[in-house]
Amino acid sequence: MRSADTQGWCTAGELLRRETRSRGIQMIEITDLHKRFNTGTPNEVYALRGINLTIKEGDFVTIIGTNGSGKSTLLNAIAGTFLPDTGRIRIAGEDVTNRTDFQRAKHIARVFQNPFMGTAPGMTIAENLHMAYLRGRKVYPAIRLDAARRQEYGKEVEQLEMQLEDRLDNVIGALSGGQRQALTLLMAVLNRPKVLLLDEHTAALDPKSAAQVIKLTRRFVEKGNLTTFMVTHSMQQALDLGCRTIMMHRGGIIDDLTLDEKRRMTVNDLLAKFAELRQAERLTDEMLVALRRDYL
Ligand SMILES: Nc1ncnc2c1ncn2[C@@H]1O[C@H](COP(=O)(O)OP(=O)(O)OP(=O)(O)O)[C@@H](O)[C@H]1O
């Protein structure tokens, strides 16, 4: 059995807190969610086919699946990028099904695969962090980016372990992809969102940067007790991170692994599950390419 202290973010203390927390609130409740694109045309795609999912506050859920199985669409549905055809979504007990993404933004933060999304390249590190800090705050007169706030941001940036704390006045556009993605993650968690959505957020990074961003992800999620969904193509990442793994195929959830099941599983076991699918449905290699056995 893998050590709980070194794998994922579920340390022994965290497990204890999770048990206590399991009596806590349901953070996300998705009921019979359906979504079709290009309905009634030859290009119709049935992207989500009756998703039912309940996530408790503080749960960290990894999502894997075949290509085009609906992983990003599920995240988009939670974020409110589009409205579902039918079904309901509740966040922190509030029915948000018919709310726009803008209206849900106060609850939800998101990090995408592309490190160039989510930050303003022409603005400095301090200005980007200040923008993230002010997001969703109704304050008048506006909070200024003064020396005290800059000091706060310096401390936050220090956590990234990328020597960026002395470069608060550098424009973000001058940073590497890894540095930028680490800052995007920091900006996403700065106001402690109710829900954090990570959509293959390390897939475009070099292995060293990806490892650092994963380390930060663990740290921020644990520290903030953030309810988190992370889509990944890496089966090792899916097993190592979080307390639950959902497997998707053709718009549905085909498996939902608990922490205990994840601990007992290896990447080969997961591969075997997908190999069964391949046999049962004659999937092509292209459909399975969404799954990688490598670490990051
Ligand atoms: N806005 C859209 N318009 C039309 N079709 C869409 C749209 N968004 C997603 N789809 C389709 O819905 C299906 C699910 O897409 P989605 O991006 O959610 O899959 P995924 O599991 O994230 O895939 P991948 O692992 O390849 O990134 C795909 O067939 C995709 O082409």
From TrEMBL:
Record localization: Cell membrane
Gene3D superfamilies: P-loop containing nucleotide triphosphate hydrolases
Domain of life, source organism: Bacteria
Topology versus the membrane: Peripheral membrane protein
Keyword Transferase attributed: no
InterPro entries: AAA+_ATPase, ABC_transporter-like_ATP-bd, ABC_transporter-like_CS, ABC_transporter_ATP-bind, P-loop_NTPase
Molecular function via GO: ATP binding; ATP hydrolysis activity
Pfam families, per the entry: ABC_tran
ABC transporter domain residues: 28-275
GO CC term (a single one): plasma membrane
Keywords from the UniProt entry: ATP-binding, Cell membrane, Membrane, Nucleotide-binding, Transport
Full protein name: ABC transporter related
Organism encoding this protein: Syntrophobacter fumaroxidans (strain DSM 10017 / MPOB)
